[in-house]
Amino acid sequence: MDTLADLLDGPRARGAFLLRMVMEPPWSVRVEDRAPLSVMIVRTGEAWVTPKDGEPVRCGPGDVAIARGPDSYVVSDAPGSPPQWIIYEDGCTTLFGAPPDDSMAFGVRTWGNAPDGPTTLLVGTYFAQGAVERRLLAALPDLAVLPAWDSPLAALLGDEIVRDAPGQPVVLDRLLDLILIAVLRAWFSRPGARPPGWFAAHGDPVVGPALRLLHDQPARPWTVADLAAAAGSSRAALAKRFGDLVGEPPMSYLTGLRLAHAADLLRGGDQTLEAIARKVGYGSAFALSSAFKRERGVSPQEFRSGAYAGGFGTEREQPGTS
């Protein structure tokens, strides 16, 4: 498995929030949901996205914006348009705290201020605060805009987001994952991009094979010597090249990878800590607990009980859904 696929494989969308917004100027929405990641695709018209501490960025038809949380941002018809609605973790209100008018729901997962407005946005939001994606989020700016994304996936999402068929939430979750992977791959590969070391290193003849081995077999009791031999390199060459490209030693990277997988297992099920420890390469629950607390500042039990679950995590809470 390659690095990007593995980073996205753990925190798959689970009950993600998906919405089709249809808007007519003037309009402005301030998003304060603290979600780790949101994807916005402009299908028609234009939208301006303004990060909390950044400049407004215009998005036209075909453009895709990725907003990284937890900081707030504004999506509007023009720079400086005063917010009319606020999206929180547990719902949407007007600027004055009242719920939005029922007339703003135009059907399944469709919401806006005019059913035939000139601007249409498709929004997908990840609310699950896992850990495998921390390395991915750290590689993104507060706002990443990919212009003129030419992919049939956008049209497919537009068709599926308004359907109310059996199993549709799962279909939309998987489609959102596919879109995110495709957009990030294009974002990191665009001309002039400065991709993170782990992404760029994937194509390196020395570090690439080592990274794939670590992601394929994180529980294996690796040493640098073993990893170098399996990757067809010398120990010294791998250690130096890995540090230069990825920014940390191989074993440090492996520790972060194991703990990220442990965090995802803690968040996604009820397995015992002992079972999780064995799955991610630790000899005992105590060893995993010590490493986890040292890395994340909380114990595995505290992480499991306090994992963030977001506000639009269920299908029935989404605007326009019956």
Task: Give a verbal description of the structure.
The chain is α+β, with helices and mostly antiparallel strands. 38% of the residues lie in helices and 19% in strands. It contains twelve helices and 13 strands. The strands form two sheets. It has a seven-stranded mixed beta sheet, covered by helices on one side. Strands 5-4-7-2-8-9 form a six-stranded mixed beta sheet, with no helix packed on it. Helix 6 (207-216) packs across helix 7 (224-231). It is globular.
Task: Give me the secondary-structure topology.
Elements: H1 3-9, E1 17-23, E2 28-31, E3 37-44, E4 47-51, E5 57-59, E6 64-68, E7 73-76, E8 85-88, E9 91-94, E10 105-107, E11 110-112, E12 119-126, H2 134-138, E13 143-146, H3 152-160, H4 168-189, H5 197-200, H6 207-216, H7 224-231, H8 235-246, H9 250-268, H10 273-280, H11 285-296, H12 300-306
Parallel strand pairs: 1-11, 2-8
Antiparallel strand pairs: 1-12, 2-7, 3-6, 3-12, 4-5, 4-7, 6-13, 8-9, 10-11
Helix pairs in contact: 3-4, 6-7, 7-8, 9-10, 9-11, 10-11
